[in-house]
């Protein structure tokens, strides 16, 4: 089996390295070849990577929601003529593993009982991506027994009801803990750190449950 891990892309070298490290962790766990592609910012693109591989490939979208990139960009790349057959899995999130990893990261960062939690995602105007984040916030609230507000690192004027992370923090009384609904470090994570919150969790990154989720998806792909 050959696996292609497809991520968004970032100019931050630590973010790029993290995706590579996730691919290496999958390779070691599954004992298969795992390559990396990006839908934006840098290459190779999914279609370029598939052309180089030139063999049947399982594609794992390294995204925490089912937004435009997962539903449109990746399928468009995979449908280009001349490419080998592919099997595409679900995205990393939303999932039970992502939720549990969010709680772990919050506790690791020093969240206290009674803290208000802000779930900070990258930002999107895609209705399904927004719905996914709001569902995660509802479920996270039950797990941490605290109010959870959704905020975006890059808010969209088309989704006016979701504030920036800094705005969400400033509107909240008492201690605030920010849960990072991000996979890798970069510009968006820096905005979380600069939001003024009392506690800011790390990105989900190489949390063991994220590795578990990626490997489980690769081992049980859905044909599309």
Automatic annotation (TrEMBL):
Keywords: Lyase, Metal-binding. CDD domains: CbiX_SirB_N. GO terms for molecular function: lyase activity; metal ion binding. Gene3D superfamilies: 3.40.50.1400. It holds the Pfam family CbiX. This is Ferrochelatase. It comes from Gordonia malaquae NBRC 108250. The keyword Phosphoprotein does not apply.
């Amino acid at each position: 089996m050959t696996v292609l891990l497809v991520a968004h892309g970032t100019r931050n070298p630590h973010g790029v390295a993290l995706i590579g490290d996730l691919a290496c962790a999958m390779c070691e766990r599954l004992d298969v070849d795992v390559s990396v592609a990006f839908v934006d910012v840098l290459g190779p693109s999914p279609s370029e990577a598939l052309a180089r591989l030139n063999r049947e490939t399982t594609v794992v979208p390294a995204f925490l929601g089912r937004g435009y990139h997962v539903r449109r960009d990746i399928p468009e790349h995979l449908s280009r003529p001349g490419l080998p057959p592919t099997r595409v899995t679900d995205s990393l999130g939303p999932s039970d593993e992502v939720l549990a990893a969010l709680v772990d990261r919050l506790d690791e960062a020093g969240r206290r009982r009674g803290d208000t939690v802000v779930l900070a995602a990258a930002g999107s105007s895609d209705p399904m991506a927004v719905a996914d984040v709001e569902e995660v916030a509802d479920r996270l609230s039950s797990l941490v027994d605290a109010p959870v507000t959704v905020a975006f690192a890059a808010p969209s004027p088309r989704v006016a009801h979701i504030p920036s992370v800094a705005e969400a923090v400033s509107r909240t009384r008492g201690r605030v803990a920010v849960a990072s609904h991000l996979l890798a470090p970069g510009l968006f994570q820096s905005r979380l750190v600069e939001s003024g919150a009392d506690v800011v969790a790390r990105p989900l990154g190489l949390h063991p449950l994220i590795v578990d989720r990626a490997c489980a998806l690769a081992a049980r792909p859905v044909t599309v």
